[in-house]
Amino acid sequence: MGADKTDRNWIGFDLGGTKMMATAFDEDFKILSSERKKTKAEKGVESGMDRICETISEALDHAGIERKRLGGIGVGFAGPLDLDKGVIVDAPNLGWRDVPLREILEKKFDCPVVVANDVDAGTYGEYRFGAARDARCVLGVFPGTGIGGACIYKGRILKGDSQSCMEIGHMIVVPGGNLCGCGRRGCLETVASRLAIAAECALAATRGNAPHLLELAGSDVREIRSGTIASAIKAGDKVVEDIVRHAARQLGMAVANAVNLLAPDVVVLGGGLVEEMPDLFVEETKNAARRLAMKSLIDPVKFAAAKLGDNATVMGAAALVAEKCGKDG
Amino acid sequence: MGADKTDRNWIGFDLGGTKMMATAFDEDFKILSSERKKTKAEKGVESGMDRICETISEALDHAGIERKRLGGIGVGFAGPLDLDKGVIVDAPNLGWRDVPLREILEKKFDCPVVVANDVDAGTYGEYRFGAARDARCVLGVFPGTGIGGACIYKGRILKGDSQSCMEIGHMIVVPGGNLCGCGRRGCLETVASRLAIAAECALAATRGNAPHLLELAGSDVREIRSGTIASAIKAGDKVVEDIVRHAARQLGMAVANAVNLLAPDVVVLGGGLVEEMPDLFVEETKNAARRLAMKSLIDPVKFAAAKLGDNATVMGAAALVAEKCGKDG
């Protein structure tokens, strides 16, 4: 860290199961450049780490950042992490185990590295730069393929002992309900994730109740994406709209339960589904939560759609490493 | 605070709907004296505040504490509080509104006063002196007439904006279930509080399925106390035991949901029901939570019955005011 405190640049990195993104930021967290690659995790850890380093190097080069001005790298990742060690413990979506991500990047780029859960990083991004700027307590809920959650409490991510927590997707909202990917039944993900909604839509399409959806995507759950669902609603599939609104209300019940515990002042909703249908989700989730949570705790809560979209994780991760390096005080 | 830092004494005060208790502590939080009175809130605020001050004075006198050695007073109270101002906002169980408890006590005793939620204080007591000593993150759950919750995260009580939170009793565990005192349906309190259990037991007694309970307490919900329920089980009422075990499993589901969010390392169970049946509650709640929470989050959790009993709130409240006064750091 030879650079002056005030002019350091930062890298935010978003490592996903299918794609990765490296974004270079200036000292005020303005985006200078952004590089994407496919993850190609099936080619193995070594090749994958090479791609990660390559993507970061390209982002630095395209932004014209000299290595000595690189203050640090923040990485957001969706799988189980040892947060203290910066190790990917066991990532089923990559097929990787025990990968010392932080150590590898620190050696390669000779700078501090922070490895964080991607939803934690994304919610921290919204807290620092987006829809929940400087809130006392932010609850972030991101329905997508699964449903991620995070809580920033008085400026700090709520965490377990070296692992991420706030697993709102596995809150049981329908006791004895449908089977969840985690092996239990009735988790929020079984009723309000993109996959759960897609399965209900596929059923409706099969029954002939969602003609536009059927035309757009057929009845294969894997083909029914957030965008398809939104398009089918716009085209007039009332049943699809009912399914999504019901899912958003279930989300509202889980949010109500979490609000009763955590008393956030802002609830940020993000992720693929919300990006496609922000008004529907924010309205329906908010109304359900207001009905189901305690008045004194829910009344002060502001509901908002995430503002940073795909950049939330890289911005949050960059801000986390900058904070660790004392940029902010 | 004329006294030397190291030899200050503290008062912990537990203000309940029916009774109050003042306990005097030495500088090491050893109990020196303890005074109880009935609250008699119906006689009005002024008379009630007089009783509070009298009880504190008696505890000080009986412990032989000179006023100048009193470091501070910590108060735990069950109703809605403005924590920053130390004001009882609106207490249905007392019929009191807008009572500036902290201000009154500060003037009367000329020392710092902290006003806290009683379950927050009790859980803090268990964290400092009891079943969860020095844990990174403690979840306290206290099933009684209602069900209180609290979380001590890295030594600090998780709070809302000047109000208490962690309202696990109002987590919805049976969507569309029975009516709760809060006006909503299916809250944890409707299936696992002492009142909910008593109502089920009263039904069983009415049907002739709980002969011992019927003999001990009749079928009046208000007469069926935690002790009666425990006695009926000991006497052989299998149906009563089933009811209580089922309630403890429901409690376990709520605890599982909270563990998924907060990743505590210790869950402390306390309150009247648990005091009467600690093994049953800890075992059944733990087993249910282990089935229903995410493995990586629930595996490290230690379950324990509260150790401080009736003293938890006064000990925690005293420790809170001592901490505020810098005794500990």
How would you describe this protein?
The structure is a homodimer of 329-residue chains. Chain A is an alpha/beta fold. Chain A folds into two domains: 5-124 and 311-324, Nucleotidyltransferase, domain 5 (2-Layer Sandwich), CATH 3.30.420; 133-306, Nucleotidyltransferase, domain 5 (2-Layer Sandwich). Chain A contains twelve helices and 13 strands. The first copy, chain A, has a five-stranded mixed beta sheet with strand order 3-2-1-4-8, with helices on both faces. Chain A has a five-stranded mixed beta sheet with strand order 11-10-9-12-13, sandwiched between helices. In chain A, strands 5-6-7 form a three-stranded antiparallel beta sheet. In chain A, a hairpin with a 4-residue loop joins strand 5 and strand 6. The longest helix of chain A is centred in the last third of the chain and has 25 residues, at 238-262. Chain A is globular and about 60 Å long. Chain A starts with 8 loop residues before the first strand and ends in a 5-residue tail after the last helix. Chains A and B meet through strand 10 and helix 8 of A and strand 10 and helix 8 of B.
